[in-house]
Automatic annotation (TrEMBL):
InterPro entries: Aminotrans_IV (IPR001544), Aminotransferase-like (IPR036038), B_amino_transII (IPR005786), BCAT-like_C (IPR043132), BCAT-like_N (IPR043131), BCAT_family (IPR033939). One of its GO terms (biological process) is isoleucine biosynthetic process. GO terms for molecular function: branched-chain-amino-acid transaminase activity. It comes from Syntrophotalea carbinolica (strain DSM 2380 / NBRC 103641 / GraBd1) (Pelobacter carbinolicus). Keywords: Amino-acid biosynthesis, Aminotransferase, Branched-chain amino acid biosynthesis, Pyridoxal phosphate, Transferase. This is branched-chain-amino-acid transaminase. Pathway: Amino-acid biosynthesis; L-leucine biosynthesis; L-leucine from 3-methyl-2-oxobutanoate: step 4/4; Amino-acid biosynthesis; L-valine biosynthesis; L-valine from pyruvate: step 4/4; Amino-acid biosynthesis; L-isoleucine biosynthesis; L-isoleucine from 2-oxobutanoate: step 4/4. The gene is ilvE.
Length: 354
């Protein structure tokens, strides 16, 4: 399929002061769009000026939430070049999400080509200062205008781009986490491992209650026993427990994070043992108190790693380590961002240059 390139007639002003870039608030001049019709497949691929869509009020996505998305970043490297981090992993996961929600797959090679072409055209929008990047948001929505619960016969797939500032501007700030004891995020057989908007809509109330109590994030427990750690907010979670890295196994109720996978690989190479196993909330709280649990951190594209300083379950609060960012957490952060920004050699073939 050819990609039509449409001209941009009214380019937007860039935010010159890169310390003022706020995540997800500003979008670039162009977006990639393609359309799908049953019987015809994907068609009308184009890179066009960023603009609102016209959607029929009956469009299926607006009623039954047939929607998926991805999140990855492009990094400006020291020599000025631009690189993507493991984009094929994101595109593969996009198709896995599509399959679970009865949406059509994209051609993975074509999608990567379209993404690279979009970023090439928007390369001016990839910020230059340390820790900044261009956030990439591929999305697919059901657009057939008909009420009735069924898979849509029409879809829109698009990619938008947003320049983002450094996540850790004022230094690393460990987060305070509220362990949800009333709400759950996903259940076996559900859509926990799907990157879909519906999961997030269902998580808002717990996050709102956590914020009202002064917490930064929610840690979710499993839906069956309400006992085992799953993940936090929009991140996977890892613990340094008895000197080993412990993280929840991928059994369908948590997102299979690209950052999680990369961090586990780097930690293995640093000589750490990895245990993908269920960690109970009790083991976690007691571990923090006894000193067996020395570090905890979330992993995700936005923050890379996010150190956890404190955990609260019902009325019990524990501090992890000394409440500051752990040594290993920092080491893993540096190792991964070093590869992304080209300061460290990419021995895993994770980086794709634009
Ligand atoms: C996207 C996401 C993650 C992190 O995945 P990465 O590929 O590392 O960015 C973790 N949990 C949830 C619920 C997510 O949506």
């Amino acid at each position: 399929m050819e990609i039509e390139i449409q001209p941009v007639t009214q380019p937007k002003a860039h935010i010159e002061d890169e310390t003022k870039l706020v995540f997800g608030r500003q979008f670039t001049d162009r977006m990639f769009v393609m359309e799908y019709d049953s019987g015809k497949g994907w068609h009308s691929a184009r890179i066009q000026p960023y603009a609102p869509f016209t959607l029929d009020p009956a469009a299926l996505v607006l009623h039954y939430a047939q929607e998926i998305f991805e999140g990855l970043k492009a990094f400006r490297r020291q020599d000025g070049s631009i690189a993507l981090f493991r984009p094929k992993d994101n595109i593969r996961r996009f198709n896995q999400s599509a399959s679970r929600l009865c949406m059509p797959p994209v051609d993975e090679e074509f999608f990567l080509k379209a993404l690279k072409e979009l970023i090439r055209l928007e390369s001016d929008w990839v910020p230059h200062s340390e820790g900044t990047s261009l956030y990439i948001r591929p999305t697919m929505i059901a657009t057939e205008a008909v009420l009735g619960v069924k898979p849509s016969n029409k879809y829109l797939c698009y990619i938008i781009l947003s320049p983002v500032g450094a996540y850790y501007k004022g230094g690393f700030k460990p987060v305070k986490i509220w362990i949800a004891d009333e709400f759950i995020r996903s259940a076996p057989g559900g859509t926990g491992e799907v990157k879909c908007g519906g999961n997030y809509a269902a998580s808002l109330l717990a996050a709102k209650e956590a914020a009202a109590r002064g917490f930064d994030q929610v840690l979710w427990l499993d839906a069956v026993e309400r006992k085992y750690v799953e993940e936090v907010g929009s991140m996977n979670i890892c613990f340094l427990y008895d000197g080993k890295i412990v993280t929840s196994p991928l059994h369908g109720t948590i997102l299979n994070g690209v950052t999680r996978r990369s961090i586990l690989q780097l930690a293995t190479e640093m000589g750490y043992d990895i245990e993908e196993r269920a960690m109970s909330v009790n083991e976690l709280l007691e571990g923090a108190e006894s000193g067996r649990l020395t570090e905890a951190f979330g992993t995700g594209t936005a923050a890379v790693v996010s150190p956890v300083g404190q955990l609260t379950y019902k009325d019990r609060t524990v501090t992890i380590g000394n409440g500051q960012m752990g040594e290993l957490t920092l080491k893993l952060y540096k190792a991964l961002t070093g590869i992304q920004y080209g300061q460290q050699p990419d021995t895993h073939d994770w980086v794709v240059e634009i």
